[in-house]
Amino acid sequence: MLGLAGGGVRIVAGAAGWQTCPVRRSAAKRVEVLAVAGEVVAARGADATRFTDVSAATGVGVSTLQYYFGTREDMLIAVFRHAAERDFELVGERLATLEDPWERLLAIATHLGSDLTWRLWVESWRWASRDPEVRADVLRDYTRWRELIAANITAGDPVRVARQVLALIDGLALPVVLGDPAVDRAAAGDLLEDALARLLGRAPSL
Amino acid sequence: MLGLAGGGVRIVAGAAGWQTCPVRRSAAKRVEVLAVAGEVVAARGADATRFTDVSAATGVGVSTLQYYFGTREDMLIAVFRHAAERDFELVGERLATLEDPWERLLAIATHLGSDLTWRLWVESWRWASRDPEVRADVLRDYTRWRELIAANITAGDPVRVARQVLALIDGLALPVVLGDPAVDRAAAGDLLEDALARLLGRAPSL
Amino acid sequence: MLGLAGGGVRIVAGAAGWQTCPVRRSAAKRVEVLAVAGEVVAARGADATRFTDVSAATGVGVSTLQYYFGTREDMLIAVFRHAAERDFELVGERLATLEDPWERLLAIATHLGSDLTWRLWVESWRWASRDPEVRADVLRDYTRWRELIAANITAGDPVRVARQVLALIDGLALPVVLGDPAVDRAAAGDLLEDALARLLGRAPSL
Amino acid sequence: MLGLAGGGVRIVAGAAGWQTCPVRRSAAKRVEVLAVAGEVVAARGADATRFTDVSAATGVGVSTLQYYFGTREDMLIAVFRHAAERDFELVGERLATLEDPWERLLAIATHLGSDLTWRLWVESWRWASRDPEVRADVLRDYTRWRELIAANITAGDPVRVARQVLALIDGLALPVVLGDPAVDRAAAGDLLEDALARLLGRAPSL
DNA sequence: TATGAATGAGAGTTCATTCAT
DNA sequence: GATGAATGAACTCTCATTCAT
């Protein structure tokens, strides 16, 4: 089931019993497809993402997508996983260049609240509501983000504040991504900064 | 509300442009259906909600659902609207019995973060991302909730804090509804209360 | 599962749970389709019979066939059942006009060994090998034919001879239907008559 | 046999006309595969036998099967031929150890009516109905079995009785293989013995 | 000689929708 | 006002086959 894990073969349930289905045979191409598919899923929503859509966006035929991923749902799960891993990687690279805790927190918030990431996160979350396997992934990732945030909190109770901060990031991203004129990206940044200062017990202007 | 009120004909967006479609045939039955359909949408997700699902859950035939609502998308939009109105009504009734601002805020948070309401809210939000009509509804509702919250904030900048509080409510509901053991409903309440106290500049224990 | 049984609704397992599926709503049309579908199954074999084939042969659209029968396999089973019932009816009508036991036996043999009936019988038999429900049908029908034959055997041990006779009918039909020049329909009739006489202990020429 | 013997190239009917296809690459492996494939065909039916089924049952990859046999239909025909030849070989070996005509006839009947042989025979017969090449094979084999039986008939008209006996064997195998409680293998043996005695004009108990 | 990667054709099935009543 | 019959469109999936190695 770990479509992203090491090579070899994967056993999937087919209509007429069990058959072997190769995995990671052309990893490069597969990853390319996953990246583009992530954009499609973010744009259309997971439920509405057809093989045809991904095929059109990637230039890879429908049959080949099925050869790569198995069923449509397997493809979507692979997209979620790939995106989640990619997010951690990208944020990790970014954090490696920053020293200041506030800047680090802001970098995390900016990434999580970006349109693509946030939309995929919501899709993952919905899928997780109906699929235990995905739910485990999502909860694990959620924990990882909280830990990453807590590691950058220098005052108060880092664990508690990290939960509040992650909730704020999530909750502020919602109107931003929806294009609410009352809470645009800049306003969300201000609101987050202000709230953070208060949660940490500092002066509002940090 | 719009879909439920007034007699005569309603103009709805159909697959092939605009068509007239009768309203208030048997408003009572229709509202019953909307309530049950809301549960179906919350459980399965809007994209995955078929006429047959709602038919099975309500005992009303598919053709009758179409007679009531028009297309499937029209039905979903009606469900969103009905649920949104219902939420305002229910919270309004609850608030009429409460005096203390914190209790009032908690009542709002409790309702918004309840499983059914939150799931439907996420579905509305996703639909709004792709449908301008629904987006207008959602943004208007979001504004109404912020105003309701601001009206119960007694210190600091009510408007700003209301935005932060609504974001917190939304962001905390996410792990709660997903069943994250790290942030269950009780923990979310504590985190919200604590954050609120700090955002209002009071002592943490309020 | 009894597609041929009385009206009402039938519960069939769908991909996303259980749904109701109407049965026997336009019995006349449905029976017409079953008759033609039987010819298609006899000609192409059950496994190779597609909805498309039956659609082309009947002029009824694929969707309508599925509306009538459910899945392809349900359709095939309905075809088997319909053909089996039809065979009993037709032979019953024929026997009502005959007095002489040998003529009656010959009428039975002629019907069972006819191209259409025999081919469908083989298809039923193969299907029965893999589907317990069909197996029950086939075994029951086999019993009924043996009883019908035994009722027309006037000497010796009717039950034992009936089994031998039915085996002979089946075994002789095989080369006949395949077009074996060594055993054509006339030769099969002679061989059957001769064998019957000996099995009954009479003179070969009866 | 044809497909297994001789080196060089074999001309087989492909989808797009005639193509050359190498033979006797690794005859041993190929024969192993044919034996296992025969079991698969007997179990699933020829139409339902996929390359993947044979691949799973043999451990030989799909591409290799195609390399061995060409198209799927070529593989099935090879299976039929191999099984037919194997049956003659096995019965020949068995008959070499028997003297008594009745025992020899019983040995033939037992082999033809065995589950595997009989199922493959039915599959061959069905295929022969639609493929002239296979029909020729089947009719030739049928003739060979009749001759073998006739050679062991010591009274009456051997040719005529052989046809009746082969029909009886075929017809009795049908309920036996299907698991009809009314005609199990032992009962079929008794019925065959009894019928044979009468057809040969001897006393029933031979 | 043998095999994995990739792909096109075709099938079953679901489902919204139209029409007649 | 309400509903069952019928159907076309779209989608997923299976599978044989081709190609390159």
How are the strands of the biggest sheet of chain A laid out side by side? 1-2
In total, how many domains does the architecture of chain A comprise?
1
Largest sheet of chain A: 2 strands, antiparallel
Percent helix of chain A:
55-70%
Based on secondary structure, the structural category of chain A is mainly alpha
Strand content of chain A: 5-15%
Which consecutive residue ranges of chain A, at least 5 long each, have pLDDT under 50?
Answer: 1-25
CATH class of chain A: Mainly Alpha
Q: Which value, in Å, is the CA radius of gyration of chain A? A: 19 Å
Oligomer: homotetramer
What general form of chain A does the structure show? elongated
CATH superfamily of chain A: Tetracycline Repressor, domain 2
Count of helical segments of chain A?
A: 9
Taking all residues together, what is the mean pLDDT of chain A?
Answer: 86
Order of helices and strands of chain A: EEHHHHHHHHH
The total strand number of chain A stands at 2
Report a brief summary of the structure.
Four copies of one chain form a homotetramer. Chain A has one domain: Tetracycline Repressor, domain 2, CATH 1.10.357.10.
Keywords:
2 strands; elongated; disordered N terminus; mainly alpha; Tetracycline Repressor, domain 2; two-stranded antiparallel sheet; 68% helix; 9 helices; DNA-binding; homotetramer; 206 residues
How would you describe what is shown here?
Chain A is built from nine helices and two strands. With 206 residues, chain A is mostly helical. Chain A has one domain: Tetracycline Repressor, domain 2. Chain A has a two-stranded antiparallel ribbon with strand order 1-2. In chain A, strand 1 and strand 2 form a beta hairpin. Chain A is elongated. Chains A and B meet through helix 6, helix 7, helix 8 and helix 9 of A and helix 6, helix 7, helix 8 and helix 9 of B. Chain A binds a DNA duplex (21 and 21 nucleotides) through helix 3.
